[in-house]
Protein 1
Amino acid sequence: MPSQNYQFSIGQNYDLSKQVDRKIGFVGSVSYRNTQNIDNIAGIRRGNWQINSTPDDPENVNTGNLYNFNTTLGAILNGGYRDGNHKVTLNNFYSRVFSEQLERITGWNYSNPKDDGFSKHPVIKEDDRPVFTDLLQNKVSGEHLFGRLKLDWTAARVAVNTLETDGVSAMLAPEEMANKVIYKYLPGQGSAGGGMLERGKYVYKERNLTAGMSAAIDFNIGKQKQVFKTGLFYLDRHANYDWTILPVVSFVAVNNPYGYIPIQDWGNYMDMKNPTTDILYMPSSFHLNRYEGKDVNKAVYAMFDNRIVDKLRLVWGARYEYFRYDSIQNSTNMQNRPAITLQDSVRWKFLPSAHLTYTPITNLNLRFSYAKTAVRPSLMDNSRFSRYNTNLGRMQVNLGLESSVIDNYDLKLEWFPGAGDIISVGGFYKYFDKPAEFYAVNEVSGTDNLYVYTNNSNWGKIKGLEFEVRKSLGFIYPASILKEITISGNLTLLKSEVESRVLRYKTDKEGKQYSFYEYMKYKRPLYGQVPVVVNGGLSYVGKHIGMNLVYNYMGYKTSITGVDPNLVEYERPRSQLDAQVSYRFYRNKAQFKFNMSNLTDSPYQFYINDASTFEIKNANPPVNSEWNDVYKYKFGFTDKFEEGYVDSSKGIGQQIGDRQTLTRYLGRSFSLSLSYNF
């Protein structure tokens, strides 16, 4: 699909004095971008869609498209003042985005799989989300030098307003008529709680206030320069989320006529002149509700930059951080859903760090570092709002997220053989306390495998190796075109171990319900981590012509996790090839760029190790068991994707192998741009 991108920028500096260095300046920019694309969903077997394939019936597939439309307007206006010892900067950014995504899937439901009777024909599910997003950011910052003392300060405000107006979710029912199949929009059957057709309005507003100040002073110990720095940080966030969800229903139980009336004409039947047959909105209390929350993050920190000897440098310090989240109003929009399990009770955290660099020769560094960091959840991560996620194909339910604390250890050897060149090798180890992951469950409704929880795992461990190279080919023959060609690449290898957890509920002898966590150790990639990443590039930069070729490969990745292995979803390896050709002309003030993306049209593919690929070897495992203590793979199967085979021993073909849950093609993209500097 076509796309457009326009940008105009202008800037200027002005001297305020001819005797001293004193200047003011500004830069402004406006931009417009429009993109349209269609993602092809070649197959989906997840969420509320039929999950089991039928090899004897190749027409039993769930397919569809995602139609994406996006228009972005942006503006930047920055200004500043600078003299010899002082600098003050104003930064202002505004953007307005309209994005609309329409998902249209044709297939069979989990609860009504394909058959020769009532479910002979597929249904159609539509989900349309038109969203307007306004972002305004204002920031003022300053730098001041008083002899050896340097002061830095900043203050910022960010406001985000998101309006989704008339979001529609609909299920179209098939009907045979005159030797063909028609699809009908139908209202629900007069019961609150949702149904065949819903309209919704969703309004999200968030305001962030940020302030910080730091002071640094340098001094000497012997002949070595030292730096001490200390500072304060403050972040205040406040958010509101209001929703209005309107199920469209009627009380006509038999021979409902509205399927034969164009949906745009339904408004003519909503005046309630005939209450028993008219169409009406029938929301429950949880359809008209809201969320409001706030949090505060404050910190004080101090650090030293110590040059111990000429070849040894130590940067070390600590951050003492306070975090508090408050839920002002936290309503739900579901009839049955679990409670928020937020337990982030440790408000003060001590976060030390140290970075040691040894430079035995000028262009060689050996680095070792340790840092403890904390990742805070967003405000909406702790709301009780739940909604269908088109990317996951399921309802996404928030259970509340605790802060994740990470211990990072890194060791790296770097060699810089020439300007812009690097060859490095390194290793790392990370320990995650309460990492956030997506958990698949099928217990909320008791029937369909519909839900994904956002929740914390108990812990995660990652260890890995990194290799990087970037080298000009000019060393082969300096006085040739080879000096303008650069090769680059990096390789990351890692292993993970995760202890997953799921909140369970039981009732004691007195009838009181209590909750507990069930744990399971997995030797799998932590959510978002990839065990193998390969990037390679070849670039040429000439006087007028430039060329760039980039190859990326990502190995197996965990997409959705869970305690039940039949619910854990992985993303299969994917590679992508991109290229760019550029040409400079008109005294190098103008430039054409031709970009080509995803030239091999590689799809995103997801799968689950189906229950047919493993068996239970211990039905009563001990507490905190590992996966191998409870399950084992059948012959010919591993946690990697294996399509398997068709078993026809029972008369009906049954697929024995991993289940492909989603195959999504984004297609190739090509763009041509022109820029001119004056």
Protein 2
Amino acid sequence: MSDQQQQQYRSIRDKFDKVLGELTGVPDVTKSAPQTIRAALPILGDGQTFIIQTMKRRDVGEYIFLEYIDAEGSHRIVIPPPAAACIYRQRDALGMKIRRQTGRRVGLEQAALRKARGEAPAFMKSKGSKKRKRAKPRPAGDSPATV
């Protein structure tokens, strides 16, 4: 086999195909159905197509297979488990941050409504008839130190 034929053979089987082939048909791999998403940029009207599939291998992690197609051509990317885990962590962190900001905003709005109605905050409300119980003093002879 000549060098040119070997080079052509190597370029046909890229990383995407290699990893996809290694994971297909393996018993400890669970995969999702490929999802196709078509998007168009509103101003330019350029169309883009994304094909996304996730495969999870037990004890290794999740692989994300991304195919991107536009007018200039197509690109195929395999996102390995460490990078996929980073994407998931960042997504979770953003969700937590948004929930915290929303909760703070809603809490301030509720406090403003209570203040407008003339309600006192909970920490300023009187306890009423509840009195604190005090410990009874011990007689001098019952001290545990004298035993």
Protein 3
Amino acid sequence: MRVRKKYWAEKKRLGPLNRDVIKVKFQIKKEKYEINKIGVMAVLLAVACFLTYYFHVILGICTIFSHFFYIPVILACSWWKRKGLVVAVFLAVMLLLSHHIFAGEVGLDDYFRAFMFIVIGIVVVLLSERLAESEKALRVSEEKYRTIASSVNDVIFTLDLEGKFTFISPRGPALSGYAVDEIIGHHFTEFLAEEHREPTIEKIQGGEIPFHEVEIVTKNGRRIPVELNVTCIFDKDGEVTGRIGVFRDITERKKAEKELQESEERYRLIAENTSDIISLTTFEMNPKYTYVSASCRALGYEPEEAIGKSVFDFMHPDDKKRLLPLLKKYVIAKAKKIFTGKETSVSEIIEHRLRDKRGNWHYMETTGNIVGDQMLFVTRDITERKKAEEETRQAYGELDQIFQTAADGMRVVDKDFNMFRVNETFSNLVGMDKDEVVGKKCYDVFPGPLCHTTGCPLTRIMEGEDRVEVEVGKEHLDGKKIPCIVTATPFKGLDGELIGIVEDYKDITERKQAEDQITRSLEEKEMLLREIHHRVKNNMQIINSLLNLQSKYLDGERELDILQECQNRVKSMAMIHEKLYQSRDLARIDFTEYIQSLASGLFSSYGADPSLIKLNMTLEGVSLNIETAIPCGLMINELLSNCLKHAFPGGRKGEINIDFHREDEKMLVLTVSDNGVGLPEDLDIKDTETMGLQLVNALTGQLDGTIELDTTHGTEFKITFRELEYKERI
């Protein structure tokens, strides 16, 4: 019994973590205790046998002292229960046999004493078994409650009348950091924070502490908030024998309360500072405001003015019917929750009008839901949005009208080449109704040569081009070709992603017909202009022939020279018209080819010997209009004629250089030079009597040019001028 009590006391002290060690130690002690009990019983039985022998044989007394026999009987039956009856039976038999052997007869009182040994043994066995069952039940109950105490997260403890710990569950040491030995025997307030000790002592002096929040200080100094509950333990007489209490760690609860408080504060700040009106109403078909956020001031109301009033007091009468179905849904959802216990979420958005304090109506958007036993509404003023939507609808209507009435055919094609929008002009262009066109592939309606090729405007837009414009012939349903200018542009959404392509079809049939007419007219005028140039050239040839005939009737050398110069001038102008007549461009003449032809004609006219006079020409590919070409040709004619006539007298050898090029986009430079005898030093080219130089000066002025003369090495004329622009003649 003592060993078991020591076992349970040790187990209670050390806790469940060392149970295996305790069991091993207990097994060893139990074995030693059994050996000791057997030894004691052997000694007692030996003494009983010795006393029997001593009384019967040595003293010769028939009646022996048998009260000693009760000691081993009681011990054996209490130690080994029913097995201990063997000792009682042994001693009863030994008593009867000793009387029979040594006294010669067995008396009635001997049988009675032997019977009493067995009866007393049975009684002790019964009492011991009942006591063992009670101890077992007590141990089971104690173990059960100890397991419960060890399993719960709360700290369960018992106190004596002085308030010192007599027991603490394993959660206590784990929470506080103290070992069990450091807790048992110490006053429980020693582990409380300083400021909580006195109030707690005052409360416990009253007997009990019902759910009191305190802070305990762990071994490492950390403060842990706990909820303390202490109850008195009474004996059967109603006297207080101690106290039992619970420490509950409320760290997470405190943290949750703090987070809840912070969350409530955040939501309160949001509700007070948001532009949306947040409100709570009673849960009924005629809901009344129980809370309204400060943002209701935007409508001119103070929150207190709305609380207690019906929502319908502020709502437009025509909009009440929009709110009533929502309220019915809320009521149904609440009823379902009451009967089924399942939460049903009901959240809908409705648009309605609210009246401000000045009587103006505002368009509002309200989102409602159920919160506990109330309804939560979040209301946003969408008056400006409604105005913007109305303006957008009007703008869209105007744009749609522009789209539909546009003079050009227009269609919108998605990325799969399906047409999803066309205007009236396009449907008229293809000869189909709009309903027939929409939904069809673009290449199945109004096809063209670029369809299914890389040149397709739609394909090029999809590949990243911003704008594509092509001229292409489209085929009408009746097979007729319609020339169009197609302009394709991307159609993008608000996110910048391509939605489709907008194509504009401009029917240029009339323009093509006008262009063809203009082309024919230009061809006719070009033929007429060529004919004019040809006739002017022929007329000048006639004039040249007349001059040639006239020269036969003149004998003076001077007169013949003058007539020849006139002929050369006429030839230079006639050559211009001849070149224009032969040219593809009737407005401009290739002046390089002209200078070469003019120089060759003058060499032939003056009978110059190419072996004596060498002609060097540096000519840039310059083309001139007829306005500039005639005076420029006459200047070259005069200067080159002057070189051939006067620079190399008496068959003298020399060189003539002609350089003609553009100095920039506007200015031209003509240089005619020779290395002949040169001009007189006192010659003033701007004041001379010779007709050729006078003509050169006049033509230079006509071309807005300048003339420079250099006689350092022979004679060099440098003329800088600009090309004349065509001036319309009246």
